[in-house]
Amino acid sequence: MAKKKPLKKDRLAKNHLKYGEKKQPFYLEAQQKQNRSKPKKNPFGDEWEIAQETVAPGEYQAECIALDEDGNGVIRVEGVKLSVPAVLPGEQITVEVWGKKKPHAKLIQVQKASKDRVTAKCPVFYRCGGCRLQHMSYDAQLDWKQKQVERLMQEYIGKGAKFYQIIGMEQPWNYRNKSHTAFAMHGRQQIVSGIYEENSHRVVPTEHCLIQSERADRIIRSIRQIMKECKLLPYDEDSETGLLRHVLIREGFTSGEVMVVLVTASMIFPARSRFVSLLREKHPEITTIIMNCNPKKTSMVLGEQERILYGKGWIEDSLCQKTFAISLKSFYQVNPVQTQALYQRALQMAALTGKERVLDAYCGIGTISLIAAQQAKEVLAVELNRDAVRDAVSNAKRNGIKNVRFFCDDAGRFMTEMAAGNETADVVLMDPPRSGSDEAFLRSVCALSPKKIVYISCNPQTQKRDLKTLTAAGYQVREIQPVDLFPHTAHCENICLLIKQDRR
C-alpha cells in the first residue's frame, strides 16, 4: 500500500494547522462535507447499495459483479461491497483498498478481462472520471443503458407501456459543441490546461479531449502559447494570484461559428488587445470573444460581469431546420446530432396534428417550442430566466414563427393560474433539470389536466420518482424511449409519453 504523501509547506498546509488559525480552502471544505454525507440509496434496489463497513487496507483479488448507476464496478471484499472505477461485470481483478472509516478501492490489475472491454483511447482516462465507460465497447454501453432504463421503468413496461430500443450514435466521438477547460501552473514556468481530476481541483493536463471538438483543442493550445507571449498567469486559488481561471468554447454545429469565453479573476486584463489580436490571427474562425469575470472563491465557473472583446457576443446554430442565437449563458444541448434525434422522437410520440394547444414548461431559449410550433396550432412557452425568454422571443422572430407565445414566469404557477381560469392545454412538454420536477410543479400539471404529457428527462432516476405522482393522478405511461445523448458516460436521456386515462 502506497504511503500517504506529506503536504507541501505552502498555504494549503497552513490551512491544516490546529485551533483553526487558518480557514481551509473552500473546495476542501466542500469535499469534506461530501465525505461526511450519508450514501444515497440506490434506485436499483438494496442489493446494489455500497456498504460502508470497514475493510483492512491491502491488496485483494475480487470479481466485478455489476456496474452501479455511475458506471463503476461493484465488487465484494470480505463481505463488503465496494465501488471500483474502470472495471466491467465478470472481470477478475486485483484491487488496492484503503481508508479506515470509509473504505475505497482502486484497480491494480485485470486478471481476466470481459469480452466487452476495449482499450481506452484517452491517455488520462484513469484520472479524469468524465468518460467513465470509455473502457467498454460502444455496443455494450448502449446495452447497459438500455437495461438501466428498463430496470427503472419495469413497473410501467409490465403494465403495457411500449419500450423502444435505445437511440445511439453512429460516430460517438468528438460530439460536444461546448468545452470547458481549466488552467494551472506546472512548476514555475509551464502553463497547463485540462480538466479537474475527479473530486479535486487538480488540473489534469489534457492535449486532446476525445468527446469535444478537435477545433476546441487547437484553440486551447493556442491560448496557452499566447498567455506566455503576453506574460499572463493562470489563477491560483491558494495564493489568489494570476488572471485566467477557465476558458469556455461554444461552436455552431451547422454554422461553424465559434465563441470563446475567457473567465478571469479580475476585470483588469493586461495586454487585452494584444491577446485578442493574436488569438484572432491564429484562429480566424472565431466569431466572438467574451470576457467573463468571476472574482469569488466558488466552484461556480461563470461570474456576473461580462465584456465583449470581439464580435457580436453570441453565435448562431441550426437545429431541426430552425436557427437559434446562443449567448454565453444560454442552455443549449451539447450534442447537436442526438439532440435533433431526441426532439424529433419526442414530437413523434406527441403525435401532433396541427390542432393542438401545446405548453412547453421548461422552454429555455425556445428550442423545442419553435420546433413543435410547426406541428401545433399554438404553443405557450414558459421560462423563469428572463434572459432566456428574451433570447427565445428573438429566436421566434428570427425563424418567422408567429404561433408561439413566451412567458417569463414560474411554470408551476403559470399552469395553476391557467387551470384556475379554466384554460387548457392538449399537450404538455416538460424537460426539467437533472433533479427532476418538484411536487408543486407536478401538482400544477395535474391541475391543468392535459390529454398528453411528453416527459423528456436527463436523469431516468428522478423521472421514475416523478412518474409516480403523475400516474397517481390518472395518467398512464404508454411509450418509453431511451436516447444516448452522452456516449462514454453513464448518463442517458429518456422520453416518456403519458396519456390521461378515461375514467368513464
Sequence-ordered SSE layout with sheet pairings:
Layout: H1 11-14, H2 26-36, E1 58-67, E2 73-77, E3 80-84, E4 92-98, E5 104-112, H3 125-128, H4 138-152, H5 154-157, E6 162-163, E7 178-186, E8 190-196, E9 203-205, H6 214-229, E10 244-251, E11 258-264, H7 272-282, E12 286-293, E13 305-310, E14 315-319, E15 322-326, H8 336-350, E16 357-360, H9 367-373, E17 378-383, H10 386-398, E18 404-408, H11 411-420, E19 427-430, H12 439-448, E20 452-457, H13 460-472, E21 475-483, E22 493-500
Parallel strand pairs: 6-21, 11-12, 16-17, 16-19, 17-18, 19-20
Antiparallel strand pairs: 1-2, 1-4, 2-3, 4-5, 7-8, 7-10, 8-9, 10-11, 12-13, 14-15, 20-22, 21-22
Helix pairs in contact: 6-7, 11-12
Written account of the structure:
The protein is α/β, with parallel strands linked by helices. It folds into four domains: 1-37, no CATH class; 47-117, Beta Barrel (OB fold (Dihydrolipoamide Acetyltransferase, E2P)), CATH 2.40.50; 140-171 and 335-500, 3-Layer(aba) Sandwich (Rossmann fold); 178-319, Beta Barrel (OB fold (Dihydrolipoamide Acetyltransferase, E2P)), CATH 2.40.50. It contains 13 helices and 22 strands. The chain has helices spanning 11-14, 26-36, 125-128, 138-152, 154-157, 214-229, 272-282, 336-350, 367-373, 386-398, 411-420, 439-448, 460-472, and strands spanning 58-67, 73-77, 80-84, 92-98, 104-112, 162-163, 178-186, 190-196, 203-205, 244-251, 258-264, 286-293, 305-310, 315-319, 322-326, 357-360, 378-383, 404-408, 427-430, 452-457, 475-483, 493-500. The chain is globular, with a radius of gyration of 25 Å. The chain starts with 10 loop residues before the first helix and ends with a strand. Residues 1-51 have low confidence and may be disordered.
